Amino acid sequence: MVLNERRAKVVAMANQKGGVGKTTTAINLAASVAALGKRVLVVDSDPQGNASSGLGWDKQSSQGGEEEALHLYHCLLDGVPAREAIVTVADLKGKLGVLPSRIDLIGVEVELMGASKRERYLENLLDPVMDEYDYVFVDCPPSLGLLTINALTAADSVIIPLQCEYFALEGLSQLVRTIRLVKNSYNERLVIEGVLLTMFDGRNRLTHQVASEVNEHFKGRLYKTVIPRNVRLSEAPSYGKPALLYDRRSSGAVSYLQLAKEFLRHQKKS
Ligand code: ADP
Ligand code: MG
Fold first, then answer.
1. All structural domains of the chain
2. How many whole angstroms separate alpha carbon 141 and alpha carbon 124?
3. Interatomic CA distance for residues 266 and 263, integer angstroms
4. How many angstroms separate the alpha carbon of residue 240 from the centre of ligand 1?
5. What are phi and psi of 264, to 5 degrees?
6. Global pTM?
7. How far apart are CA 231 and CA 199, in angstroms?
8. Which residue out of 16, 22, 24, 44 has the highest number of ligand 1 atoms within 8 Å of its CB and is therefore the one to mutate?
9. How far is the CA of 234 from the centre of ligand 1 (A)?
10. 202 vs 35, which has greater pLDDT?
């Protein structure tokens, strides 16, 4: 169906561990894919709101002065259409939008507890804007709670960022089990898009050990591109910019652009 082909592909960044590079990947992969000419939306589904602030979203409404800007909580619980909360961010020819979040989002886990079809709220919310984007990247919180379940139910695929450290693989089987559960119960399209090694330090022997273990586990799904540890990637969010607009020559910006190309090459094949 022609209509269907125009719909965005939804990719969730998931790993219940914090600090593995989900948000950094959501911001920088999204910005790089947008820089390559695709229409991209980042959905910030983490109450910490780091993807929102890292993309320069301002909590105060631009028109209303002191008035609070709309965000994902309003969409999920007050019926505000996604379009009303989405803002265009970064200087990327209007190709990059964010559906922002702030700490209020934490209430969703409790407030939707008794709701029927509570795993489909995000999918239903995004449905009306799916023709307006090529890719939607959902930044998940560091848990396997309802927000992550909503992201996985709305998604076509998952990118799993892994930090190359001793405990990198710990908890991974739980994540894979959750992905399988969502696939079996709510969303049969769901697949693992790729596993991404972040904060890679080639001088560290452990890094190579983790890389080879992951490669064995996820045959063919480990991205060839690895993201090095690069201070620019951690500085850029405080300027509200993706790395490619903060220091486009930095190794962080360059490797996320390379990842975006690898990601887009996979789309053609599948
Ligand atoms: P998560 O979203 O999984 O919790 P983040 O993307 O927020 O992880 O990353 C955790 C911290 O590590 C942040 O302070 C971030 O700026 C930093 N960071 C992430 N990736 C890199 C990298 N490749 N090099 C240096 N710092 C990084
Ligand atoms: Mg995060």
1. 2-269 (3.40.50.300)
2. 19
3. 5
4. 15
5. -70, -35
6. 0.95
7. 10
8. 24
9. 6
10. 35
12: amino acid identity, one letter: A
Does the C-beta of 225 come closer than 6 Å to ligand 1?
Answer: no
The string of pLDDT tens digits covering residues 36-72 is: 999 999 999 999 999 999 999 987 665 555 677 999 9
This complex has an ipTM of: 0.99
pLDDT, mean over the chain: 93
Direct distance between the N- and C-terminal alpha carbons of the chain, in angstroms, rounded to an integer: 17
How far, in Å, CA of 254 to CA of 35, rounded? 12
- Nearest-CA residue for atom 12 of ligand 1: 19
Burial class (CB in 10 A: 0-12, 13-18, 19+), 208: middle
Atom of ligand 1 at shortest range from CA of 229: 24
Q: Six-digit token pair at 9?
A: 């592909």
pLDDT above 50 (res 1): no
157 phi, psi to nearest 5 deg: -155, 170
- Contact between 108 and 14 under an 8 Å Cβ cutoff? The reply is no
